[in-house]
Amino acid sequence: MLRLHSFIRPAFRSRRWVHNTPTFSHLNSVNEEDLAHFSSILAPTSILSTLPSISTPADDIAPYNVDWMGKYHGQANSVLRPRTTQQVSEIVKYCAQRKIGIVPQGGNTGLVGGGISLQKEIVLSLGAMNNVRSFDPVSGILVADAGCILQSLSEYIAPHNHIMPLDLGAKGSCQIGGNISTNAGGLRLLRYGSLHGTVLGLEVVLPDGTILDQLTTLRKDNTGYDLKQLFIGGEGTLGIVTGVSILTPPAPQATNNIFLALPRFDNVLPLFQTVKRQLGEIMSAFEYIDRTAYDMGLQHGLGPLLSADEVGDSQCFVLVETSGGNQDHDLEKLNNLLENLMTADEPLINTGVLSQSPTQFNSIWALREGLTECVQKEGKPYKYDVSVPLADFQKVVDAVRERMISKGLYGDHAISKVMGYGHVGDGNLHLNVIAKHGYRPELEAALEPFIYEIVADRKGSVSAEHGIGSMKRDALHYSKSDVSIDCMKKIKQVFDPLNIMNPGKVLP
Amino acid sequence: MRPSAVRLLNILVPIKRAVDYAVKIRVNPEQTGIDLNVKHSMNPFDEIAVEEAVRIRERLKDAVKSIKVVTIGPPKSAETLRTALAMGADSAVHVEILESAPAPEPLGVAKALKALIERQKEGVDVVIMGKQAIDDDAGQTGQMLAGLMGWSQATFASKVEVDPEQKIANITREIDGGLEELRCKLPVIITTDLRQVHLLNEPRYASLPNIMKAKKKPVEKLTAAELGVDLTPRLETIKVTEPLKRVGGGKVANVDELLTKLKEAGVTGKRA
Hints:
The structure holds two protein chains of two kinds. Chain A is an alpha+beta fold. Chain A is 33% helix and 19% strand. Among the domains of chain A are: 1-14 and 253-466, Alpha-Beta Plaits (2-Layer Sandwich), CATH 3.30.70; 132-247, Uridine Diphospho-n-acetylenolpyruvylglucosamine Reductase, domain 3 (2-Layer Sandwich), CATH 3.30.465. Chain A is built from 19 helices and 16 strands. Chain B contains seven helices and twelve strands. Chain B has helices at 44-60, 77-87, 106-119, 141-149, 208-216, 224-227, 255-264; strands at 9-14, 17-19, 40-42, 64-73, 91-96, 126-130, 152-163, 168-175, 178-185, 188-192, 206-207, 219-222. The interface between A and B is medium-sized, with 23 and 17 residues. Chain A: Belongs to the FAD-binding oxidoreductase/transferase type 4 family.
């Protein structure tokens, strides 16, 4: 039985949990005059508004005011969809003058309410800026508009045998500008690193409308402070990313994946070490799925990859992907690894499958990538994307479940499932707590700040890759010191003294 | 009371390594064929055939003595045999041809299979294979083999039930009007179908324990010469091109313009 009190912080910390919605008394709402001005900058199809002069039907604006999970509901009465950086610049200049808050929005697939208005700010969607500006097949450097959808970019560079350095389940909808503004991680980070490394240059519209053009295609350029790093992961609070220059790696000649069933969670860490050592440079992904998530996936028609007999009472599963230059070489490494794992004195795995064709390769990935959609079918999820030491993954999931049980909130009447899956290779756990019948304040109160405190105890991150948005603004202090937060506020003041750029997000 | 000596079933599954169906096909620069420098895997219809053989064994248990897979192809085809062994076949035969040799044609394959069947000391009772390969879409090998052997054949099978005691197989076939039920005397040639609604089966993944076991299963290597078969193609491919790109239609402003455009296109009119 888990001892809960070991996770509870001393009292003085708990008092710092205050979760409130901001009032934007310094900002103005959009009015008819503003719309008239925008009409002089933008084509009619680029302006949506429920105000009488435009009268867009509410249904057409709705998608811009609700996030993908249906958790965050905005109140913007107007949405702008500029087609050029110049238009973005003019919009921002005007909004600065009129003190209108701006919410930059990409594919609206964010999971922390970062792309939804809080109080009637105007939504500035980058979706209409979706041209590839250039691609050099020799260097692999791609220059594109911020509104390009990630999957479209992958398809664009595929014939040249290149791949995007990041990949995530939302690839069919998320836009590269949003990926960069949230420093998205994803399934390939293990191999290709983060956007802080792969982005070469950015074109950004600053909160006063000035265009900061640092769209370089240089691989190395140490000339002054590296400003782009502020906007990568800046979640649109320091400026709007309008153009991107990114380094794309060559497509691997050989890709394979395996799906392994483990008898118990404790084997994950030694398995990771063994796999890392034996596969070496060809390992390109290492993903974790707990039993609850796996069973849920099966119920919704994902897989099955293994028969029920083969799975037995396996407690968790691991997906490993390899990418290399030579199929024979990679298969040899994989086969050696599998033989070692199966014939060990005390095997770390019960069983597993190895993809035998591109189709099987895709369906093995589909099981992992499809989990997020299954979660949405189960109910409304509370998602906690945390970085904690690998050895603690299961403890964190179990602690949360115990907590809900102890509050009488575990069962079909409230929280129906607590599960974990994620990029275990990066130490990143996606904890999903499913509210079968919808979001309720007492559910959130039971979860927060409980989960943040567990994470802080382990010196982990309350947001490994999803970002802060509006969801974790008040939890920032669990992972960053007051000194850090103070510096961040000073930087915000430098770029956005009027606080019009995605107000109420990231900083408390 | 022991039943009269039932001959245990020996199943032969011919398989083919073909361009993977998810690959985007491109014609090669010489226009002699398609670009083969792409991912290959087991012909999906053959995967279903292997799976069906394994399921027959799961149903009939000891009545199935052996499941043997065979492929005629270059050295790389050995991988495809390994996959079939990992799915549950017992042994494999690789009729190896040179990497540079032209792809064998259905008649050549059928003759090679006939020679192979005649070499099997214990005989062959059921041959299950894919109805067609997705690279040439010929759909002929099974039928030709049945003709050469003088055996019953049931093509486009969507359901297979073998009764070793009665020495028959009940097979449901996909036909244009719906389904046809056949009862065939063994030995029989069955070709498997892949229709969405009446999918014969869902091929299993190769599990690790089976992959390990597959490494130890025997793979016999033969050449066409040893089988006494000549695989030289009888057909010559003159040219391979992509289909003409569909040109978009055009709009005309009025009937006069329509007539002008029709005339330009060489369409002449005749008074009724």
